[in-house]
Amino acid sequence: MTGNTDAEADGESAVHPGTLTRRTYLAAGIIFIIALLYLAHSMGSRPFWTRGEAREAIVVQAMFDQSNYVLPLRNGIDIPSKPPMFHWLASLAAHSSGHLDEFSVRSPSAFMAAFMLLSTFLFAFLASGYRLAFLSSLILATSFEFLRGASHARVDMTFSAFLVAGLFLAYRAYENLCAGTSVRTWHSALFVACLTAAILSKGPAAVVVLSLVFGLYHVLRVGLRPSELAKTFPIKWFLLTTLLAIAAAGIWYLLAYFQQGSAFMQVQLWKENVSRVAAGSGGHQKSILLLPLLSLAVFLPWALLLPYALIPFRVRSRIENNKPSEHTGILYFSLSVVAVFILLVSLSGSRRVVYFLPCVPFLALILSYGFIRADKEPLEYPYTIRFGYLMLTISSLVLWILVLSLAATVQSPDIVDRLVLFISDSFFNDAWANKVFGGIEAVRNQGAVVYSGFAVVGLLAAAAFLLKRKRAVFAACLFALSILSVHFIAVGYVLPQIVASRDPRPFMTVVQRYVQANSLPVYELHSTWYTTRFYFDRDIPLVPSLERLQGTERAYYIVSEEDSAAVLWRYPNSFVRLTTSENNAGNGRKKLVLLEQIADLTETATTASVEAQGLESEQNHTQNKIQTEGPPTGEGSVEVKDLRRSDGLSFGQLVPHGQ
Q1: How far apart are CA 547 and CA 520, in angstroms?
Q2: Pick from 316, 307, 312, 299: which is nearest to 364 by CA?
Q3: How far apart are CA 196 and CA 245, in angstroms?
Q4: What gap in Å lies between CA 348 and CA 369, rounded to an integer?
Q5: What is the pLDDT averaged over residues 347-363?
Q6: Helix or strand (DSSP H, E) at 435
Q7: How confident is the model over 529-551, as pLDDT tens digits?
Q8: pLDDT per residue as tens digits for the range 451-487
Q9: Three-state helix/strand/coil letters over 298-313
Q10: What percent of the chain has a predicted confidence (pLDDT) above 70?
């Protein structure tokens, strides 16, 4: 990776690509801060409305409630399925801000996304200078899956960022050791820290990925000569640092085992890393035929430009004196990462687009090299490539015109209902139809129209430069502008419109008031709606079936609208229906109903009916009191022991006054 580089060719020879200066650190810091501010600006504006985000959020909540930062139990009984690195970072953010809310729980994803951009910038600069560093960072920052992962309370971005940084550090150490240069102690320590954090983010898969990537890259670099493979690979450094990382992460695994024993091993090691890989789980089971589409989908929309960037790229595969030629090492290494993930996901029974998230920085590096090479060596592109990009531009423009026209003309609710019904019957299910129309409704806003104009202009300009076969890097910047415009529309206008119809907070606020007024226990029937548990701020025991609805105590039950009909039909004199959510509060899929058990389920219908009349009358009085006066204060109220939510709802352990 020495010799002439694109930086030197562009007049940057004063700063060698392998030398980090104050200017480099300043540029990297600016990129980190801008990325963090952009990603963080909308994190707290929407509730947890999906199962995955709320599932991780209640683990953080359990850490505070149970004062257990090793292995807190979800809902008091469930062992978390992922190691705690993400939850530790979210807890730190909650302690720093004083609020355990959507912003603090999502903040680790945004911070780690900015960290991934920072590490990609520095790695690309060390490889080839500022031009590659800025372009690869820009492409990474405007990839849809990167932007999605950066704004969700999931462990994937934390795992990916630490793994990518570890791979970057290991590559630099590998090249130095193969060249006969020693690796500095701080470099090795930083690699151990990143690998340890990756293991504590999503399990031992990080070690498997690292081993396979460098095994494949070493074969590509040296060839299939067994004697050379064994002699040239820096096995001592890799073995020592990897064992140190495993030992450091093993401390947590040992502490967790002491708490839950074999049950912990069954969930976190066997189920998540063996059983799930072998058999898959639920909706994650997809045909292996979809694997190429999944690997490309993670890099959308830049995957559409891969043919353009790779056609003029000619890899010099000849290796002399055990040293790769210009750029070949980085490219072979990036291809090794992508190939390993394709292999692992193909062998797994569980397949999702997000599993390829660690590949995005390496795909960005490959595409950036292609754009830079296209500027240096303009070629005549095949007619099919040029025609394809022309049709892409035209179809995108037509789509935007259609959306804006619908947003401007559709006003009648009857027309809205018919449109959603038509879309759901013709193309998608009801949920997707509502999302489509939610997007159309959102762009009524003038701001969305302006940003959509930026998107179209950027797309047209990028296509024009690409078709002229010059200034590819400038065209990529225009394309990135259009992507950011689309993303800003999505998070600023479309997503809030969709989430508003699935916000669980209003319903759970009503449930809290009922519980505070009557001090009755609360149960859930059939399902595990993690969102209800997070916004209720207490464990909610699960009743798995109607047959388990036994007992004499009065209680509240949160059930789906469909289940409420079954409960009221089976026990007509033992339950009353109190309230129904105004939207689809059940993890974005269904309406929820609050039922109250007012009589013993084993009582006769006549006796239960008499009791029901009296208790229902009492409940109506309580409900009217709640609506007019709000939750009562004094003996039945609660106070906050630990944290408080920013919207006034309590978080942390709730205890009666006086205790």
Answers
A1: 21
A2: 299
A3: 5
A4: 31
A5: 85
A6: helix 430-442
A7: 788 888 988 888 888 777 777 66
A8: 556 566 666 666 665 555 567 777 777 778 777 877 7
A9: CCCCHHHHHHHHHCCC
A10: 66
